Recover the amino acids of this structure.
């Protein structure tokens, strides 16, 4: 898996960069070679990567290495800061509209998720007290109108459609209808099209000139490859986009397309789709995306830890965490990743000073269970991972659908985490006091 | 980003609109010698086509060796060499592809057949089924569609419209019903009606959703168990616009439901779909169809030779 490759490669590079002082040109070049590959594997556009790497290099060479960091970590820190800066720091909102109805047009390639996003946006606006009207202007794909009608029905939102009319006319009449019905937002779903299809792009321009939308949002699949920039530029140059919706972010893609589009067009990403259900639309957090593209788990923890292997230093830290019982789901996830990488839960435990080896017998880990657990934790917010007690019924449902599991699975994970934490706490006490272990023989970690 | 950098970026992007091979040819024509610049430009071209870092490194390394072994010194000779290499990679797996759905024809001995169509959301599964139905109905086959996407709103209606277009029959249940039951009924109906070709649609699902993949396994088990006497295939639909994630998709779907071939859609855009080189070359899944538009006739059988000829044209 790409993930492990990157992690291993970065570690390898960083092992070589041990000295202190100023970052030399060679330090930087070596580290950046790996960063470059990581970005390319994350589908960041080749030219964006090239310019980005050049910029980081310029900033990094000659920089003083912070006392607590190795040169490699220093480079990654700079990389991360620059990535975050490029993604934009702040969350972007929809434009405020002085005279309702506000008109929002959704455009994009076939299959990117426009219809679903249209319904999701409607659901979100409704939740915020607005009165949206959904407009079915995709007259080409079979049953696209029906799809929006079904979704509108589920959400109890009106859907405007007009048999036999062309999309610009549909849009025009929809806005009139919104005025008549007192709807304050008009969400126009358009047919998927290629940015090089002049005839269909002209149709979008026509819709735009007829209804003068306040927002034109490009809906982009987060799994898009190198072509993302061409697509975004195509739509942007014809329509002057105001924002982006990044869909299918609940997949395991690194999502380099987001960075590429942002770098080339400067258009802000306003929303992220994180599931198939209509409530699975989130405000987009650019800072989190920056870590995701680089491989969040590895790179950021690399900055925190000189070596990601569980060396003595780390096991001491973990032991301290155990003692203070602040072992969180993040640690849990981190451990699972380690388990996968080197299968060493027993090793890890054996590194904790003072644990009798016989307690570690009979530990079995089912990789499928690990998949499930990892998926579940990955679908939680950072806050939830740190404070699992806030995960109530509705959060559980969200996490379950985000990870493609059930609420029962989530419950199972949480209770086994709780069990683990107790066990860990006991082990922690054990390592501290050197007293008798209170934990049973059955190790609770396997979920 | 500075203005200069932006301008360079835009300039550079202009180039990617040309075909991969045209690019490579340009490089070979432009380059006076086979130096590092040449290889770097070649790498860049491949990566921009979504070939991916790993496959690109593999291709370029192989090319270097060939060049060295054959003592080639002229860039224009490299063209033929590159073409041969790509052919080799894609044709490694073409033998079994040919026997299944290749050649306008699935050979007559391949019928009756039951194909299950799988993939992530929005890649073009239903459309591909519609196109396949039209293609085979026109060739005189008795086609039966199974509306196995019981999840997405109006997915059943969408497939229904394609069935009408192709003039074939369809088995459908209510939205929200069990897809394995749809699969079961479709196969039973196919047996009773003596259908030549069953095309079973499935709901789009991300390969990372554990329970949805489990559901797909169940559907697959039903198909393989019930479709006795049918030649079963699992066709994975991939979107050419997708980047390196397509490799993960292919790996996980293959592992879950024994994918036997790939349909690569949306090649009518500017995306190159270079990721199929990795999928065919590294994962060994044969490419069977390509989608080049939204009309029924916009589905082509994938012939690696032809495909490469077209790339080089
Ligand atoms: N340009 C182009 N569009 C295509 C091609 N194949 C499919 N599409 C379009 O892509 C969109 C999505 O296709 P669907 O067939 O609905 O995709 P799906 O995989 O069944 O989608 P879900 O069932 O929602 O997961 C539709 O608008 C199709 O017309 C192709 O080869 N080229
Ligand atoms: Mg479908």
């Amino acid at each position: 898996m790409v993930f492990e490759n990157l992690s291993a490669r970065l570690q390898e590079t960083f092992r070589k960069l041990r000295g202190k002082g100023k970052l030399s040109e060679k330090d930087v070049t070596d580290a950046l070679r790996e960063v470059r590959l990581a970005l390319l594997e994350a589908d960041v556009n080749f030219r964006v990567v090239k310019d980005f790497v050049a910029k980081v290099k310029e900033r990094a060479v000659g920089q003083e290495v912070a006392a607590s960091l190795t040169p490699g970590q220093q480079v990654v820190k700079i990389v991360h800061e620059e990535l975050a800066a490029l993604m934009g720091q702040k969350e972007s909102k929809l434009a405020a509209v002085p005279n309702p109805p506000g008109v929002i047009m959704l455009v994009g390639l076939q299959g990117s998720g426009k219809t679903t996003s249209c319904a999701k946006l409607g659901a979100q606006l409704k939740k915020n007290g607005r009165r949206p009207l959904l407009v079915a202007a995709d007259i080409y794909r079979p049953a696209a109108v029906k799809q929006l009608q079904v979704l509108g029905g589920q959400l109890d939102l009106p859907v405007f459609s007009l048999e036999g009319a062309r999309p610009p006319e549909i849009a025009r009449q929809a806005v009139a209808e919104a005025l008549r019905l007192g709807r304050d937002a008009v969400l126009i779903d358009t047919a998927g099209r290629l940015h090089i299809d002049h005839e269909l792009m002209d149709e979008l321009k026509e819709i735009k000139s007829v209804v003068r939308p306040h927002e034109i949002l490009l809906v982009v699949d987060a799994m898009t490859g190198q072509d993302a920039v061409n697509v975004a530029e195509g739509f942007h140059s014809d329509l002057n986009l105001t924002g982006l919706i990044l869909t299918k972010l609940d997949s395991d893609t690194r999502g380099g397309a987001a960075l590429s589009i942002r770098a080339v067009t400067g258009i802000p990403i306003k929303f992220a789709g994180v599931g198939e259900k209509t409530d699975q639309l989130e405000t987009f957090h650019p800072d989190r995306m920056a870590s995701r593209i680089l491989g969040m788990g590895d790179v950021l923890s690399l900055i925190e830890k000189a070596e990601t292997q569980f060396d003595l230093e780390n096991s001491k830290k973990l032991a301290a965490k155990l003692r203070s019982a602040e072992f969180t789901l993040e640690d849990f996830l981190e451990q699972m990743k380690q388990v996968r990488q080197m299968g060493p839960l027993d090793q890890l435990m054996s590194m904790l000073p003072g644990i009798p080896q016989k307690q570690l017998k009979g530990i079995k880990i089912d990789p499928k269970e690990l998949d499930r657990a990892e998926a579940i934790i990955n679908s939680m917010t950072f806050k939830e991972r740190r404070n699992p007690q806030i995960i109530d019924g509705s959060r559980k449902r969200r996490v379950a659908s985000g990870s493609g599991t059930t609420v029962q699975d989530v419950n199972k994970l949480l209770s086994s985490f709780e069990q683990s934490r107790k066990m860990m706490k006991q082990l922690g006490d054990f390592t501290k006091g050197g007293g008798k272990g209170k934990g049973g023989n059955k190790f609770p970690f396997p979920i | 980003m500075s203005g200069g950098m932006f301008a360079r970026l835009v300039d550079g992007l202009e180039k990617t609109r040309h075909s991969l091979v045209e690019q490579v040819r340009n490089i070979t024509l432009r380059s006076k010698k086979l130096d590092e610049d040449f290889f770097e430009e070649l790498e860049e071209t491949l990566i921009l086509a979504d070939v991916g870092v790993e496959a690109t490194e593999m291709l370029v390394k192989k090319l270097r060796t060939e060049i060295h072994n054959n003592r080639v010194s002229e860039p224009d000779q490299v063209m033929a060499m590159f073409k041969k290499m790509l052919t080799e990679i894609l044709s490694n797996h073409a033998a079994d592809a040919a026997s299944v759905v290749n050649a306008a024809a699935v050979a007559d001995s391949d019928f009756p057949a039951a194909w299950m169509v799988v993939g992530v959301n929005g890649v073009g599964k239903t459309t591909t089924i519609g196109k396949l139905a039209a293609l085979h109905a026109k060739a005189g086959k008795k086609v039966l569609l199974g509306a196995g996407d019981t999840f997405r709103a109006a997915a059943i209606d969408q497939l229904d419209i394609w069935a009408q277009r192709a003039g074939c029959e369809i088995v459908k249940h209510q939205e929200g019903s069990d897809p394995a039951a749809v699969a079961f009924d479709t196969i039973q109906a196919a047996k009773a009606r003596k259908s030549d070709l069953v095309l079973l649609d499935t709901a789009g699902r991300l390969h990372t959703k554990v329970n949805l993949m489990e559901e797909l396994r169940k559907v697959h088990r039903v198909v393989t168990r019930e479709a006795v006497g049918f030649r079963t295939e699992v066709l994975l639909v991939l979107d050419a616009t997708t980047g390196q994630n397509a490799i993960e998709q292919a790996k996980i779907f293959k592992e879950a439901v024994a994918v036997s071939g790939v349909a690569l859609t949306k090649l009518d855009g500017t995306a190159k779909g270079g990721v199929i080189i990795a999928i065919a070359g590294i994962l060994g899944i044969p490419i069977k169809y390509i989608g080049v538009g939204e009309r029924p006739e916009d589905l082509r059988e994938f012939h690696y030779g032809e495909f490469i000829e077209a790339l080089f044209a």
About this structure: Residues 1-18, 94-105 of chain B have pLDDT under 50 and may be disordered. Residues B 125-126, 149, 155, 201, 204 surround magnesium ion (ligand 2) (CB under 6 Å). Chain B touches chain A through 60 residues (CB under 8 Å). The domain at 101-259 of chain B is CATH 3.40.50.300 (Rossmann fold).
